[in-house]
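Thread title: Can someone regenerate the structure for this chain?

I was given the following input by a collaborator and told the matching structure tokens would be attached. They weren't. Posting the sequence so someone can regenerate them.
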Amino acid sequence: MNIAAIDLGTTNIKISIVDIDEKNCEVKILESINRRLTAYTPVPNAYEHSPLEIKGHFTEMLQHLSHRYNIDVLVLSTYLFATVIVDRMLNPLTNIITWIDERANRYVELIRDKAYELYRRTGCPPIHIYTLPKILWLKHERIDLLYNTLILDAKSLLTSWLLGYPVTDLSTASGTYQMLNIATLNWDSLALEIAGIDESQLPELKEAYFIDIISERVSRELGLKPKTPLVLGLFDGGSMVYGLSRGRSDVAAINLGTSAMLRTIVNRPVLDSSPNMVFQTYYLMDGLWLSGGAINNAGIVVEHLLKLLNLDFDILSKIFGIDPPDPNQTPLIIPLLYPERLPNLPQSIRLTIYRITPTTSYEHILWGSIEGTLMLLKLISESLHVNGVDYREIVVGGGLSQYTGIVKAIASLFNRMVGVVRGIDTSHLGHILLALRVLSSNRVRNTFVSLVDRSIEYLEPLTTHYIHYLKKFTEFKNILNI
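Best answer:
Regenerated them for you:
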């Protein structure tokens, strides 16, 4: 069975052909292709993607792959917080407004008095990245835009092209809109009232394993065989957690890419009982939820520092491929290049570097930025623990997880073994498990899960580093007044 695993991310769109030999339970990546997305900033604080550009890349990439391989099924994953307005004929009227876009920031104040009630209903704290604040912004600044139009996310934009109607999975809806009730799994009445819209303006909701047939016209255009099925899939982070955890609730998954996250599967909606609302809870699938959080400032901070220091990406292997340096040598960095998803962090603090000395090198600065990113994730982990959510094991994925030094830094900061999957592309684990769930037997799926289990390499914490990280983490929290 050949799966076209499609991952629309913040930086790239990636499509891989994953061959699953069901008889021998072997997985092989036949080909992967990427296209980097253009970021459009028409005004200050804007950060948009072009739907037409994405459609063009998507079409070109699938045409190339379908001419080389017999594609049996497509599985989708897309990034969260994407908001795009389309007309009733499904033509885009705006670019995709991404999570990096800050223009809705001041409209969060309009829902501040209802923030905890919305959090209780939707699992989403008051942050500008969600669709609800973006709707309020558009209603105030582009008044007529939302009249008789549809409000879609990245997943439902793709399904509107492939299936002819907009449908999104419950995990993507839960994590994007701040409008899905995580208990009833329907659009929330209070959120709809605040937005001033009707649920008919939002996409249809389905579970991640929902399957439908790609339209005949689109199949011909993409070079697919007739009646090729599409599995709806999870959001990109949810797919990563589902794959890395293999669906287990005792595993925390950390993803380190452009942004970062720490999430774990729970069997009921869990919320932060404090007014800080440090973590989010989104629906996953099958009566399971994801508790934890994501942060905006991870690889994107490293990339920014590389540009400032006039360094090439190739140097990262040299810096992060070895054991992390003594934490006493690295500066304390608050890596808030962009506003964070943690609602009570002080907005006045941005990327700040403390304690540069004459012996501080660019390696120390880059390591300090990684340490700051991991400390933001530890804030989320601490809050989960206080609210009764625990896990035994951490498994890490994402682009930065390829560097052994960074994985050892995670193990040392969290003071526990950390696993890394070797020999299998972790970005596709969720796609594979979903496809096997829908199209194969439980035996094949369970055999594949066992294969993943055997592919995990565990790295131990560095004891002396843990002691220093603990002291540094306390100082980090004091600076942020948390």
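The first strand starts at residue 2 and ends at 8.
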